[in-house]
């Protein structure tokens, strides 16, 4: 195992990773921007290095500063968390060149799966169902029209470099295609600096389902069950749960086994998540692979008892996870809610500020992953996630009741601070959610109503 | 008789416990167990005199020491523009870019921060006299770390 | 000889229990069992002067933030001695024990709190004029709840 | 199920019970003394009634005030937590007479098991091994000497009404018996107002092991495994864990099955704990039965997934638990540490005060049961337990490492406040504890050293 790991991230995930490192006796090095001086990981880590100003581009996204901090502190490995440099093939390559272990898939896998169109081509080749689409960049509006005829409407035009629900536009009819194509290109260029786009069938109403895998360098691939993340706004997840409500165990197992086979076929390494849309007809269509630990990993940890960060470290240090598929039993139900500093009444406008009063839930079968502390200022520069509240129960109904109880305990207040807590409570109470019949359109419909 | 340690401890504990539980301004308190006795008296209301020894202090709680004040006004600091290794001289053995007492002008190079094998010049942002070099030569520095103190003007 | 632990504990418990139970301004308290003795003295009632620091405070136990004082000085409150149902009259339909404007004397019955089918008289502790009835007749009251406001004198 | 439950307790257990009631949709009524105005259960419960002044005898221990509050609020049942009225047969009888459901064993069981000597006689008759002893009050020093000859030294003289390590004295040799007898009587009279004492073989060096059961009125009795609570000071537990380290699963199962048979034989009802000393020779001797939920129940919940308070409510409302023995799988290892407001450097002197800074641990597989909040004053009138930190892991070593990590996150400070956190950390690091070879003498030995 590593003697020391540098955590190239911030917020709750930096603390989450530091916790497991401490438990494993690994020296932890935190890096932080000057906006994150007060973050608890700075105090809890064995060492902390200020690597840049608040802007992520000059700190958490700035590979030379992160690598420099790793060298100065003698770190052996870098855990990139999620977001920032976590899926950056160039960064993984730089780590390799510098003799540092990047805790994640090798650069080749990151490059292949980071190109959305190529990823779908490869996955399709590995036996995973993907949506009809071009799976390659489309250079002109005319080419788009030709391709669309073969795919069928509605169609979504997506940035090749896309992610996070940005750089995309929908055409419901052939007449809308030219506009959507132009709009997606403009937006892709603006957001990602890469105007290339591709076409794909758009699924109007779907569940968002994903499979967690853990793969060693020796071809051993495990799955840890499926999660449902259909409660989203603008493609950003708010509530995650496992198992997938309404999905028979047999179907979930079949999906997981397909994913394991595909991950093995493409040579995947590390923790990863295969994301799917589940359409009305009960078909799963893979939309992407997340090559990192995910925000929603705690629900999987709660039903399996597996510490996924520990297993990431095991894979990176020894080539394989410390467990086998036989060790993994899926037990009960778990739900995670994201407490964001956002104002749901104002279109989820971020609401940074200073936290004066803070009480996070506790008690039976309740887990909190946080980085906030009373008196702390929430910087406006980053993701608004303050804390994740996760609960476990023998079944989904009890888990929902437990989450309602837990959210009722939350107090996060201070000048300027608004949170998603109340909104999450109303989602939990929604009949479609209760019945497990909601789709990714749930919140849009709620907001309209 | 066995050691008195536990007995003293016990008498002490019970005296503090009693005072806490009954509350109110006690005037005099005495607890005796065999050979051990603890007696305390508080000033009569109105008594000025020296501060009463806090039981809290006895209980081991000390106020944190006051922190030293930062130096006073008209002081500027040259900060490191990035995380890296700081050098005061252009090359090993060469004289430093600046030393204490030197005047600097805005934009003047005062050091180097090496990061990822790149040498990055550090420049003064304001004019002033170097009053102190704050970072070690060839030592690790963080982003924003103070390298020199200047007296402005 | 064996340990004194239980005896100390017992003397202590009984001293605290007694002090709390009897309430009111105790002046001096001494409990002795064999070799164990606990003795405490509180300031004389008439003692003016600045309040003696509470032992509780010394030990770091701060009184809760001062609550807003009731309107003006010389105002007293009759509190419920227990949780129960409060009655203003001796029986349904009868006139109340006291009404607003009445003068009461210490020990005068001003109401009843029924708890567990027992009727417990509520008495005024001080003399004064009833300025306001604060609890509903036949309503639930908590321990310590204000039943009447009095203007002392 | 009940519509409403009154929680006749305070501190962490009141909040713990309220949490499960809320999850079950049960209206909760808190009662509190005037010292506990600021306790979070007062805010979180649906109703709260101030029942008396700070002294427990006039509030939490004062049955008429509790019953009156139950009537006024229309409560259907009373959950007594632990301590206070939880094992009071008279109170359970009063509840019955008043038409309220007492959530615990019936008064007859409480009376029988509350008399320590009778309890041991009954348990012995039900096939449970108990220490050699008189199991009845001894009236004279001469009678004591006769009985002692049959029991064998060392001998402990114990108050019939005893508990909490008080009202007892040890005689290591026949010459010490008369003194020990006299002293125990005096002390029993002083502490419990009842001078009756009995004799029992004293076990010098032992592990403290206990079995959690859950029994219905229909004769259904389940066990939820065994716990080890050997880390004690003056017979008050500080660290609890499950499974019992070093105890082979087969032996633990045999013990649990014996307990289940005995509980059935004596007609036990509700949640309960059978406590044992495990001597050097590997024999278990039952010392008492706790007829209530215990402080250390979370470790059992963590390895079984069973919410014990929920099952207490199930038994009280429907006559039986909502689960069967087949539902209970013992999975992994769990440890609980008690964060007390005490100063370990001064003989665990209680250190009440105002909490200014408060951070309790969070993160993976970490549970907190608390009632403290920043700015809250800890009253000096009650138990010094502020919070319980519990962790789960696949095995004991990982659980210890996780607990060390969790304790390192704890910040509980303010004028006058001292906690057991640092002391607990040093116990976790002790080689005897690490090896699972510690006995109830561990802390005494630590303190001497």
UniProtKB/TrEMBL annotation, chains A, D:
Xref: SMART domains: Biotin_carb_C (SM00878)
Limits of the Biotin carboxylation domain: 1-448
Keywords, comma-separated and alphabetical: ATP-binding, Biotin, Ligase, Nucleotide-binding, Pyruvate
Enzyme Commission identifier(s): 6.3.4.14
InterPro entries: ATP-grasp, BC-like_N, Biotin_carboxylase_complex, Biotin_carboxylation_dom, Biotin_COase_C, CPAse_ATP-bd, PreATP-grasp_dom_sf, Rudment_hybrid_motif
Pfam families per UniProt: Biotin_carb_C (PF02785), Biotin_carb_N (PF00289), CPSase_L_D2 (PF02786)
Top-level lineage group: Bacteria
Keyword Ribosomal protein annotated: no
Enzyme class: ligase
Protein name as annotated: biotin carboxylase
Organism name: Spongiactinospora gelatinilytica
Lineage, top ranks: Bacteria, Bacillati, Actinomycetota, Actinomycetes, Streptosporangiales
Automatic annotation (TrEMBL), chains B, C:
UniProt xrefs under PROSITE patterns: BIOTIN, BIOTINYL_LIPOYL
SUPFAM superfamilies: Single hybrid motif (SSF51230)
Keyword Oxidoreductase in annotation: no
Gene3D superfamilies linked to this entry: 2.40.50.100
Keyword Flavoprotein: no
GO molecular-function terms, A-Z: acetyl-CoA carboxylase activity
Annotated pathway: Lipid metabolism; fatty acid biosynthesis
Residue ranges occupied by any Lipoyl-binding domain in the UniProt entry: 75-151
Any one GO cellular component localisation term in the record: acetyl-CoA carboxylase complex
Keywords: Biotin, Fatty acid biosynthesis, Fatty acid metabolism, Lipid biosynthesis, Lipid metabolism
GO BP: fatty acid biosynthetic process
Stretches the record annotates as Disordered: 42-71
Function summary: This protein is a component of the acetyl coenzyme A carboxylase complex; first, biotin carboxylase catalyzes the carboxylation of the carrier protein and then the transcarboxylase transfers the carboxyl group to form malonyl-CoA.
Protein name: Biotin carboxyl carrier protein of acetyl-CoA carboxylase
UniProt source species: Spongiactinospora gelatinilytica
């Amino acid at each position: 195992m590593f003697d020391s790991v540098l955590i190239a991230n911030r917020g709750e995930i930096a603390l989450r990773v530091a916790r497991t490192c401490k438990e494993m006796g690994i020296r932890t090095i935190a890096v932080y921007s000057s906006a994150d001086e007060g973050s608890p990981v700075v105090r809890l880590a064995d060492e902390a290095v200020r690597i840049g100003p608040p802007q992520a581009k000059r700190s958490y996204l700035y590979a030379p500063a992160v690598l420099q901090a790793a060298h100065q502190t003698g770190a052996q490995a870098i855990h990139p968390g999620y977001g920032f440099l976590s899926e950056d093939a160039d960064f993984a390559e730089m780590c390799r060149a510098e003799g540092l272990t990047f805790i994640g898939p090798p650069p080749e896998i990151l490059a292949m799966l980071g190109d959305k169109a190529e990823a779908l081509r490869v996955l399709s080749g590995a036996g995973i169902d993907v949506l009809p689409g071009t799976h390659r960049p489309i250079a002109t509006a005319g080419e788009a029209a030709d391709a669309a005829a073969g795919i069928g409407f509605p169609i979504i035009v997506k940035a090749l470099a896309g992610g996070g629900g940005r750089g995309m536009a929908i055409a419901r009819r052939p007449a809308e295609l030219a506009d959507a194509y132009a709009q997606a290109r403009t937006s892709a260029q603006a957001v990602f600096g890469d105007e290339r786009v591709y076409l794909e069938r758009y699924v109007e109403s779907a569940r968002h389902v994903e499979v967690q895998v853990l793969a060693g360098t020796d071809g051993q691939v495990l799955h840890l069950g499926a999660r449902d993340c259909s409660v989203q706004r603008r493609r950003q997840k708010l509530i995650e749960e496992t198992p997938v409500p309404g999905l028979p165990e047999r179907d979930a197992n079949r999906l997981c086994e397909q994913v394991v086979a595909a991950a093995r076929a493409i040579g995947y390494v590390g923790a990863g998540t295969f994301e799917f849309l589940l359409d009305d007809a009960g078909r799963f269509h893979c939309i992407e692979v997340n090559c990192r630990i995910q925000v929603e990993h705690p629900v999987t940890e709660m039903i399996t008892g597996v510490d996924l960060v520990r297993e990431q470290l095991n894979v990176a240090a020894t080539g394989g996870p410390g467990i086998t598929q036989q060790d993994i039993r899926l037990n009960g139900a778990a739900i995670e809610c994201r407490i964001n500093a956002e104002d749901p009444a104002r279109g989820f406008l971020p609401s940074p500020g200073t936290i004066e009063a803070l009480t996070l839930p506790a008690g039976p079968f309740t887990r909190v992953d946080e980085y906030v502390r009373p008196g702390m200022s929430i910087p406006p520069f980053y993701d608004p996630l303050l804390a994740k509240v996760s609960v476990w129960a023998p079944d989904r109904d009890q888990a929902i009741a437990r989450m309602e109880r837990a959210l009722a305990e939350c107090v996060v207040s201070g000048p300027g601070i608004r949170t998603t807590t109340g909104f999450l409570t109303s989602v939990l109470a929604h009949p479609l959610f209760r019945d497990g019949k909601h789709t990714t359109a749930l919140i849009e419909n709620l907001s309209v109503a | 008789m066995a050691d008195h340690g536990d007995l003293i401890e016990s008498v002490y504990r019970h005296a503090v416990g009693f005072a806490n539980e009954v509350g109110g301004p006690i005037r005099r308190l005495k607890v005796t167990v065999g050979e051990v006795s603890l007696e305390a008296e508080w000033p009569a209301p109105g008594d000025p005199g020296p501060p009463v020894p806090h039981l809290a202090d006895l209980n081991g709680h000390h106020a944190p020491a006051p922190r030293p004040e930062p130096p006073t006004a008209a002081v500027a600091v040259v900060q490191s523009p990035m995380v890296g290794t700081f050098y005061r001289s252009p090359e090993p053995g060469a004289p430093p870019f600046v030393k204490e007492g030197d005047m600097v002008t805005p934009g003047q190079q005062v050091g180097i921060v090496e990061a990822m094998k790149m040498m990055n010049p550090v420049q003064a942002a304001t004019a002033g006299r170097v009053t102190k070099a704050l970072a070690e030569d060839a030592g690790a520095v963080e982003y924003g770390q103070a390298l020199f103190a200047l007296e402005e003007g």
